[in-house]
Specification:
The protein has 941 residues and is mainly α. It has 34 helices and ten strands.
């Protein structure tokens, strides 16, 4: 039966078109800033004579002081950047997620919270030697993820949102940075701790002792390793920069939150090590202890809330610092972009090429007026060069604004020669700081260069795919579909796409096409739209007749309106924040209209049970920062593990599912029961302080092995048709979802399964107008819309919400650390994706059951009709998600300069795209399983 496989190929074709359009939109919308490979170079003072000119080949000795030579150089117009005198060695300690209020000390607190008054060494050292210590609020730019923060710290530039996608797969940094500046000057840098640094900047380190940093439930391994090395390194004198990155505070926040005894322990350890380091280091060595970001009250980070952005910066130098009040005021806010030019100045180097920061003189040794001016002019010249180069490479900033900033920087460079006294210098420093702030503001406004052409092409492609496929499934009569797909329609489409791909790569080979990927996506999308348009035209008689004769019932029209309402509210940030409640209401309403149309007590009872299930699942809905004070992790105890009640509920829900499965799914029930028992044993054995994590992980692996084996066995053909394999497939996906969700949220997966089962039984009672079974009625838009709304709600119903900072990474390690596997990154991505989008995937795979489920079911219909019905329903289900993705993309386009674009609209686009991909993949799996088990056609149905 050729047509049933053409149905599958068309679903794959449709999925490719939707996701390729989404990728094209993302390529245009989520562009990072223009990065350049420029490197800031400087010339040594020895190459200049006392008149400020380069010596050339002259060997005449001249006598002048260093300050006099610098002043002469500053008076020469167009002088290059000069390498300033070095100010000693630097110890840079990054305490991941060191929030500023962790460093505050108040002896009046009678009952301090676990994170309060835990770092008294800072306050005590400040009181003993005010000139030796500085303590500032260290303000980060969003997104507040570790990779972006490290990049900003070493380059002095601003991070971009798209970099968040590679937060856990760091690529080598191609821009100029402080580490490269130090190494290029002939100095040595040593690295200890988080391997993010070595992945970002490989081959730069004189010595490196790094460890894998992604296991957020491990509070001590990396910290212990750093402690075992750092004190010996401090006693050596063969390095100039020592970088140590501690992770314990950040991991304690992720696992327990700041209000926990483990956070108290990690801060106490931090206090002890800072105190020990201060005693060891020589007086001329500068110590910087900084946090890369803060954390929320739940211990998360990644967004732009004040708690996430406000880190701490503690600086110590036994010989004292420079600076004057109010610049040295404790608690003053400084930008994290200021660190790179400041550390460069400490080594006598100019700022890195992309730096947009100010030099923090209060955390540098005291300098003369001439030296200070040299550092300031170096910074101004570097920024001026960057502005010129950026204007040549990108048109983001208007020429007028760019010319104004370039002229302003050059004007300040020329004014440096007129500064003579400390008072003049103070005024000059303030003016330079104001200018640098203005430069940073301009780039913050326009940093993301939206590729509007790619975005509009993607939106056009999406709307064409949605429109023509809607015409196919809503217009062409279902009895015509088998004949259409038995023809050469699909094969012609696939051949046309192959030709398009070949032509694009050929043109690209001859350098007539700049972006081959865009060319492939656009050409295949347009040719596919043209083919579906031709198909619609050829069958317009059937479409028009069906629309003329048929009148959609009220529940059909209501369901379409509900779907459009769920998509339209994505234009509002307030509705996105409260989307979980809105989706549950719409799913309940659509199923209610279907039950009302059926008009039986049984249908009404099932609908009431469906509503009760959604109400209970509300307990598992997470909360965003914008929603105020509410719970975000029900069922999680004070130790960060599942509470006793949650564990009992998880075991009970799994036991109920496997018990029912064992009774009703035949021999396949043995595998389902065994996988469920292994999952229960995994939770029970790993729970509590007396649990065995290693044995728990072994049991989880056993469960995954059984699930994989059972999925393979599903393809064994039997005479019972496709219903039983689809049921077992859904149960296997449920157990997989429960495994990655963990004991705390496993009951929410059971509630999702129960809600789907109740809705399925309501749908199975639908009849046509003559009270007879009708596949066309079962495959109506109302059923697809209800199922899509329910699948979308289950993302929220399992404790998720659309923010990057609250992605749960622990599921990647529930069966062990995949980093040590050859396919470790793939396993990590698959497990985290399943944890996020497992429910839309499960509901997508169960779509064929909506057409085939029931006592009378589709048994009376022939195989061709069954496959046509399954195809229609799968395509409608995919269209529902495609509509929501289109509205998310449109919303991001409209609000691209909205205040909440990076906090609300962009994360929603990413998560909606992920849910759509999971749902489409699920429909392909479910439809393929159905096609495999549906018997071959013997006679026309």
């Amino acid at each position: 039966m050729k047509e049933k496989w053409n149905f599958i190929f068309y679903l794959i074709w449709f999925s490719y078109l939707i996701m390729s359009a989404v990728l094209m939109f993302g390529h245009g919308f989520l562009l990072s800033r223009k990065t350049m490979s420029d490197i800031t170079e400087c010339q040594h003072l020895e190459t200049f004579d006392c008149s400020g000119r380069e010596r050339g080949n002259s060997s005449i000795e001249e006598s002048c002081t260093l300050d006099e030579k610098i002043k002469q150089i500053l008076s020469v117009t167009g002088s290059p950047l000069i390498c300033a005198p070095s100010h000693g060695r630097v110890v840079f300690i990054l305490v991941d997620a060191l929030r500023y209020d962790f460093t505050e000390y108040d002896d009046k607190l009678e009952k301090p919270l676990p994170y309060q008054n835990r770092l008294p060494v800072m306050q005590r050292t400040l009181e003993l030697c005010p000139d030796c210590v500085r303590l500032f609020r260290f303000i980060a730019d969003p997104p507040t993820t570790t990779l972006q923060r490290v990049k900003a710290l070493v380059t002095g530039s601003l991070p971009t949102f798209i970099d968040a996608s590679s937060n856990f797969a760091a690529m080598e940094l191609q821009e100029d940075n402080i580490i490269d500046q130090v190494v290029n000057a002939g100095h040595h840098a040593v690295l200890l701790g988080d391997d993010t640094w070595s992945r970002l900047m490989p081959r730069r380190w004189f010595r490196a002792h790094t460890m894998y940093s992604f296991h957020t439930w491990d509070l001590d391994t990396v910290d212990i390793e750093v402690d075992s090395k750092i004190y010996d390194e401090l006693k050596k004198d063969d390095w100039d920069l020592l970088v140590a990155h501690y992770l314990g505070v950040d991991h304690a926040g992720h696992r327990y939150g700041p209000n926990h005894s483990e956070m108290k322990r990690k801060l106490d350890e931090t206090n002890a090590r800072i105190e020990k380091i201060i005693k060891i280091i020589p007086k001329d060595v500068i110590l910087y202890v900084v946090g890369d970001h803060g954390m929320t009250e739940s211990g998360d980070h990644g967004g732009e809330s004040k708690a996430e952005r406000t880190a701490a910066m503690f600086a110590y130098r036994g010989a004292g610092f420079g600076g004057q009040s109010p610049d040295i005021q404790t608690g003053r806010e400084v930008e994290q972009t200021d660190l790179a030019p400041t550390m460069s100045a400490a080594f006598g180097r100019p700022p890195p090429a992309p730096s947009l920061g100010n030099i923090l003189f209060p955390v540098l040794p005291k300098m003369t007026v001439a030296e200070t001016l040299l550092h300031l002019t170096n910074s101004l010249k570097q920024v001026s060069q960057y502005l010129v180069r950026y204007g040549e490479e990108s048109q983001q900033v208007s020429l007028d604004r760019l010319a104004h900033l370039i002229n302003a920087t050059r004007e300040q460079i020329e004014k440096a020669a007129t500064v003579k006294t400390e008072d003049d210098l103070s005024i000059y420093v303030s003016n330079v700081r104001l200018l640098m702030d203005n430069v940073r503001i301009v780039f913050r406004e326009v940093w993301v260069e939206f590729d509007t052409v790619s975005m509009l092409r993607a939106l056009l492609l999406l709307i064409l795919v949605i429109f023509f496929n809607w015409l196919i499934v809503e217009g062409i009569p279902i009895e015509r579909l088998p004949n259409i797909f038995a023809s050469t329609f699909v094969s012609c489409g696939l051949i046309s796409m192959a030709i398009c791909v070949s032509v694009c790569y050929t043109v690209f080979h001859f350098e007539l096409l700049e972006d081959v990927h865009h060319g492939v996506i656009l050409s295949t999308g347009l040719i596919s739209s043209a083919l579906t348009c031709v198909l619609v035209i050829m069958h317009w008689d059937g479409i028009s007749q069906r629309w003329y004769e048929g009148r959609s019932p009220i529940y059909e029209r209501f369901s379409r309106g509900a779907l459009m309402a769920s998509a339209a509210v994505l234009l509002s940030n307030s509705y996105i924040i409260e989307e979980g409640a809105e989706l549950s209401f719409l799913a309940l309403s659509v199923l209610g209209t279907i039950a009302w149309n059926i008009g039986t007590i049984k249908a009404f009872t099932l609908w009431v049970g469906f509503g009760a299930t959604l109400v209970i699942s509300r307990s598992y809905r997470g909360c965003r920062e914008e929603q105020g004070d509410c719970w975000t992790s029900i069922g999680v105890g004070s130790t960060g593990q599942a509470s006793r009640t949650a564990l009992v509920m998880a075991l009970g829900s799994m036991a109920a599912v496997v018990a029912i499965a064992r009774r009703h799914v035949g021999w396949r029930g043995h595998g389902v029961v065994l996988a469920g028992l292994f999952a229960c044993a995994h939770w029970a054995l790993g729970w509590g302080a007396l649990g065995s994590p290693s044995r728990s992980r072994q049991l989880a692996r056993g469960s995954w092995l059984i699930l994989g084996s059972m999925f393979v066995l599903l393809w064994k053909r039997e005479r019972f048709g496709a219903i039983l394999p689809l049921i077992v497939c859904s149960l296997l996906f449920f157990i997989a979802n429960a495994l990655v969700l963990g004991a705390s949220f496993a009951p929410s997966a059971a509630l999702g399964l129960l809600a789907g089962y109740l809705a399925l039984n309501v749908v199975s009672m639908m009849k046509n107008g003559n009270s007879k079974f009708s596949l066309s009625t079962r495959c109506s838009s109302s059923v697809a819309c209800m199922w899509a709304l329910l699948a979308s709600y289950q993302f929220y119903g399992t404790g998720h919400h659309a923010t990057l900072g609250h992605v749960r990474w622990a599921p990647a390690f529930h069966a062990g650390d995949p980093n040590y596997l050859p396919i470790g990154p793939f396993v990590t991505g698959a497990l985290v994706s399943l944890e996020l989008f497992g429910m839309p995937f499960m509901f997508g795979a169960a779509v064929p059951l909506l057409a085939l489920w029931g006592r009378n079911g589709a048994a009376a219909a022939g195989p061709r009709t069954q496959m046509a019905a399954v195809f229609t329903l799968c395509l409608k289900f995919g269209l529902c998600f495609a509509v929501r993705v289109f509205m998310s993309a449109l919303s991001a386009t409209i609000h691209c300069r909205h205040l909440m674009i990076w906090g609300v609209f962009t994360p929603k686009l990413l998560f909606e795209s992920g849910a759509c991909a999971a749902a489409l993949l699920g429909t392909v799996v479910g439809a393929t399983l159905t096609a495999w088990h549906v018997p071959t056609q013997i006679k026309p149905s």
